[in-house]
Amino acid sequence: MRRLSSLLASLTVVPALAGPVVAAPSLRAAGGVPPAATQGKAALLDLAAPLPLAPASKGNRPKSNPKVMPPAARTLPPELRDLVAPASLALPDHPRQVRINQLRPLSLDQVEILAEVNNPNLKAIASQVEQAQSNLRAKLSLWYPQLVLSTSSFPIYTVGQQYSSGFTGTGQPGDTTLDSIWKMQAALQASWALIDPTRTPQIAVARDQYEKAKNEYLIGLRDLRLQAAKIYFELQTADDQVQIGQEGVRASLVSLRDARARFQAGVATKLEVLEAETQLARDEQLLTNALANQATARRALAALLDLPQDLTPTAADPARVVGIWLPSLQESIVAAYRFREELDQILLDISIANSSANAELGRVQPFLKIVNTLGFGRSYGYEFSPRVVDPITGWNAENAVGLNLNWTIYDGGSAQATYRQAKQKAQEDRFRFASKRDILRQDVETSFYELEKNNRNILTTSREVISTRESLRLARLRFQAGVTTQREVVDTQRDLTQAEVRYSTAISDYNKALVELRRRTGLDQIASCEPPVLPPNKPVVAGATDVPVEPLPLLPACSAAQAQFPPAAKRR
């Protein structure tokens, strides 16, 4: 109760009046706040002025800026070296390799570091950046000359026999000629494209694709940090619900113990005992669901972090409010337009479409290339006939320099049609930019309103928990004094369990909305809450803390149903 009161007091502070918190610099322009009348006139002028265009502020081909966010971690700190990811192609083939041998508590900061270093999806996106860079280097090679070595006969051996007869009508006597000749021919060709209308657009497309790949890495890194934080908050909520379920089972055991004692004493009815048993079954079901959700959240976090197969992470930090969002809604929207790489991606798509259109027009323009070919050949052998025996030995060399011109005068209109298609794709991307702009604003506004809603929910649910806990204490006293029935205790206990679940969910939803705002705006202006002053010892609840919660045996579904509902009972 003291913890809830401290947290309630820290949350009631208005963000603008938080004294000990030092806020980050505001996004508003310096120079003070003008009077109200001046603000009204300036607002009217701003409404009359047209909105600036994105290419005027971002450029037609915006470049990624990795400095707008902290860089990703590359190596693990010493305390996390044993949590390095397994090999990418590793695949367990025995049950002992996937049996959990260790539960490892991790803080939120450690989870983010492990995600940045181990996550395979982020590594794949980083590989795509390297692929785009290699493609850009390949396109830049179009500016350089090419040197090609080719051989047509390296070597070639010719052997043959030729027989001529004297009955051919030539009057020459018949004879036989034998050939045995080795030949070698090679050529070295140097070429350089002097005029290539498609070269510059191709390089521009490759450069824009490289910038898009870098933006995709920044987007993937931000999404990964958001996903890691949200899964961690879900794990904290699951831990809280397990604790709530255990406390509910303890309280139900106490109520059942009191109801049975009063029934044996003759001051209570069997109905009160059955009501206590029913509430115990409900709390046990809540605890079972909470344990399953906890195990699922732990394994989801392990999959995101790509941890060793025999290890399961746990939440080392308790569920608490991360901080307070300082920027206003309007500042958050403008920051989202300024820092979100998704808008830059669409501008790059427009640039790629325009460059592709220029490349298509270049296909029907003249291409001019200078070519220098140096050839060399050598032959060695002999020819044998009855009349002449002459050895054949010789060599030859030649060099040719020339210009090659290639000009597609008419292609049936293919280039013009493809050019129009690329320009239409650029127009489509402009419409997609407007749609994405509206979606970004809607996302920021949704997260902002969700943050305010969950902030109020934390206040109301915390008061609900405090009042319901006191109501349960009074209901127990009334039941022990014989003033009320077991039904009032059971109902109040159920209300307390539901209130504690709603309080834990409100904190988790608040933190999720907070990290979503940080992801969707690119801002990190979060004021940390003052740590609550808590007692060194855990508070003791009389009559309920010392009740053990024993694990229930897990029976097969068919056996469990038959044990609870025997055939005779079903017939009745």
Total strand count, please?
8
Q: What would the average pLDDT be, to the nearest integer?
A: 81
**Major sheet size, sense and barrel closure:** 4 strands, antiparallel
Rg is 40 Å
Low-confidence stretches: 1-39, 568-572
Order of helices and strands: HHHHEHHEEHHEEHHEEHHEHH
Q: Structural class of the secondary structure composition?
A: alpha+beta
Structural overview:
The protein has helices at residues 2-11, 36-48, 54-58, 95-98, 108-118, 120-140, 199-265, 270-305, 329-339, 341-362, 414-480, 486-521, 557-564, 567-571, and strands spanning 102-106, 146-164, 175-195, 311-315, 323-325, 367-384, 389-406, 526-528. The chain is an alpha+beta fold and 572 residues long. The strands form three sheets. The chain has a four-stranded antiparallel sheet, with no helix packed on it. Helix 1 crosses helix 11 (414-480) and helix 7 (199-265) runs antiparallel to helix 12. It starts with a helix and ends with a helix. The relative contact order is 0.14.
List descriptors.
alpha+beta, two-stranded parallel ribbon, disordered C terminus, disordered N terminus, four-stranded antiparallel beta sheet, 572 residues, 8 strands
